[in-house]
Amino acid sequence: MDSPAVEIIGLVKRYGCTTAVDGLSMRAARGAVTAVLGPNGAGKTSTVEICEGFREADEGTVRVLGLPPAAPALRPRVGVMLQSGGVPPATRCGEWLRLVSRFYARPLDVDALLVRLGLAAHARTPYRRLSGGQQQRLSLAAAVVGRPELVFLDEPTAGLDPQARHACWDLVTDLRAAGVAVLLTTHHMDEAERLADHVVIIDGGRVVSEGSPAALTGAERQLRFRARPGLALEELLNALPSGSAAKESPAGHYIVEGLVGPELLATVTAWCAAEGVTADDLRIERRTLEDVFLELTGRELR
Prior knowledge:
Elements lengths: L5 E10 L2 E11 L4 E5 L6 H9 L6 E6 L13 E4 L11 H9 L8 H7 L15 H13 L5 E5 L7 H16 L3 E5 L3 H7 L2 E6 L2 E6 L1 H5 L3 E6 L6 H7 L5 E4 L4 E6 L3 H14 L4 E7 L2 H9 L5
């Protein structure tokens, strides 16, 4: 039980001449939420699919609950949430979840799970007639109904409205409290920051950074404000305390980093006054996980 829920060492996955995963190594602890983040094409989906046993690695070692990913003994111990597919279109929502539950020795109460995820009123609705968000919630329900030790969640809140997102977040929180390991991929930085005990950021098929959300974002605070685009930040930098930084990103949105205190705040507001601009929406906040993600992976579209 001291071993990690997922351990990956030197994983390589190629598709023809393209190397999607290039020597990746990471761990996901038991009883914790591990979020895997990365731009499109970074290799995260290939990595997770190998862990789930749907693809084979070309090189490296992968262990899931101490076993090879395709080991039959893992099937009752692991829950998998797919982004789409896998459910016969004519199958009714409740019937599908009851069928899945019968593969497990001690499944969760199906009716209670349907209620929790807002699907009780749609229990007799065929899968093809469910909305995208309802289909997503049914996939989540199928992943957890068997009381797994480890759950893989691939973008669990994609396409969900705010109410459904929060219901999903609450369920993930309860899974962790029950000692279940959760490995999730997401493009929502606020979701990873809120849920994850450990975050792994990958790009180009490699881990570029990892740690707790607090460790990745650091204790450094930022001063943010809006003003007209194109202000001359060189003059502001000359007036700021040593070690400070200032940038405009995107246009008209300014970020000042460093030892944010009364002196820095007074310097910025005095500079704005000298420039003849008003600092709108001025606020002090900590660096976000999205800031870290963009610094590490860049802003270009993939």
